[in-house]
Amino acid sequence: MNVSVKAPLPGGLDAGSARRFRDGMALLAGAVTIVTTDGGNGRHGFTATAVCSVSDMPPTLLVCINRATSAHPHVLDHGVLAVNVLAGAQQALSSAFGSRSKTMEERFAGGRWRRGVTGAPLLEGALACFECRVGRVVEAGTHTVVFAQVLDVHLPGEGADGLVWFARRYAVLPASC
């Protein structure tokens, strides 16, 4: 069934309900990732939990990027990105890439990186790295939703513990669960 919404639905949440919405979303655990790009404007990256699989035929990820993040225009301009899925031991790196006070040079200094086939930085020791080309782009509220076409997948940290964001804090999921 193909459903399309042409106009906003009536009766959405009011401003006072926004806090309840955020509180509810805090209970939706998300894998912690660092999304990176490189190109004419240099290396850029940010921490994200709003990443998910769309399809495996063709392999496609959905990546939500807050338009206020400094990396936003560079991801779109470069047209490529890497989604680096963090291991449990990489919490400090996640915090650095989530900090507005750190320069890109300071952020990237905290990890060991290599260039992928797209040119996007891939994090050594990440659980998985997805190299992508920016596909369809949709504006939604404060974010840009990118449908990213996966070009290559690397599994350098397969078997290591995972890092998730839940209830507004980090949690480590043992690989053996």
Automatic annotation (TrEMBL):
Naturally occurring in which organism (per UniProt): Gluconacetobacter sacchari
Biological process terms in GO annotation: pyrimidine nucleobase catabolic process
Domain Flavin reductase like stretches: 25-172
Top-rank lineage group of the source organism: Bacteria
Keywords attached to this entry: Oxidoreductase
SMART domains: Flavin_Reduct
Name of the protein described by the UniProt record: Flavin reductase
GO molecular function, one term: FMN binding
PANTHER family: FLAVIN REDUCTASE, FMN REDUCTASE (NADH) RUTF
UniProt KW Protein biosynthesis keyword: no
